[in-house]
Amino acid sequence: QNTDTMKLSLALLASAFAATSAFSPAATKVSISRSSTSLNASRNRDKVASRSKWAESRGYGTVAVAEAESAAAGLMTNDEGLEYVRLANEAGDTSDIYLYGGVVTSYKAGGQEYIAVRPDAKMDGSKPISGGLSHCWPQFGPGEIQQHGFARNVNWTVKSMTDTTVELEMAPSDYTKEMWDKEFLCTFTVALEDDKLSTKMFVENKGEESFDFQAALHSYFTVSALDNFSIAGSFAGKEFLNKMVGEGEMQTEDREEITISEEYDRVYMGVNDPVLKDTGSGKSLSVMNTAGYEDTVLWNPYGDEGMGYN
User: Fold this and answer.
1) Would you place residue 148 in the very low, low, confident or very high pLDDT band (cuts 50, 70, 90)?
2) Where are the beta strands (DSSP E) in the chain?
3) What confidence tens digit (pLDDT) does each residue in 77-106 have?
4) d(Cα 283, Cα 108) in Å, to the nearest integer?
5) Of 114, 271, 117, which Cα lies nearest the Cα of 197?
6) pLDDT digits (tens, 9 = 90+) for 42-58
7) Rounded to two decimals, what is the model's pTM?
8) How far is residue 165's CA from residue 20's CA, in Å, rounded to a whole number?
């Protein structure tokens, strides 16, 4: 059976600079206003109109027009009023990134969707989007502040964008300072490349005092069915925290390839090279952690139809 293999490249970088550091002088800062992003979007509407006219003139009909519209890049708004950036390349691959939460909700390559959004997800900003590559920052799971931190339920701003890349920023606000009074700047970059989707999370300390943080991408991936699905990687012999046993129990994995037939919530220490294989759709996704991310969480709400477990 032919298998399409795509790649998701992830990087987490951290740096500490004093607020007066010459590393990032004000003169070199790049900002993008609402009017300029709107102009970018309007240019893409012109592209769509041109593609549509070309398709209609050749008798390709509404299907080709719809494909032209779906492949257009720019700043968009969903039916619930939330803004998102659509990236598109010449091959017709696309990726959607919502400003609310800075979350990647779609990566389509070669006609295949690789990222999932849960059926019960709220897409109106009333709660964090349940799905996509959701940020857990500056905390993963429960702790001193709210579950998974605040990065996933604040609006990020667009620093720069092209048809195939977008750079988002998150800075402290009154809302975040009530929970976590650190001076930071988070930059999240998404690039739609020919054979992969690359993301980079850069955390900068803008204050005088050091701080600790946790970071994770709470990622949801599509599968045709769990019976067709397995996860390869350097799992064999690695310790993992099985959160489904008592208060949590450390265990050792003896399998080379993971299959799921029960509810999973496991943290695999030192595994950062998972490969998701789906024989039902013939697709494979390699998750390449090139910097920062060291561990892998496997989670599946087995049996929960509302969450779309299968």
Assistant:
1) very high
2) 4-16, 74-77, 83-88, 94-98, 103-109, 112-113, 133-136, 157-161, 165-170, 184-192, 196-205, 216-219, 229-232, 239-242, 249-252, 257-258, 264-268, 275-278, 283-291, 296-300
3) 999 999 999 999 999 999 999 999 999 999
4) 12
5) 114
6) 444 454 454 445 345 43
7) 0.79
8) 29
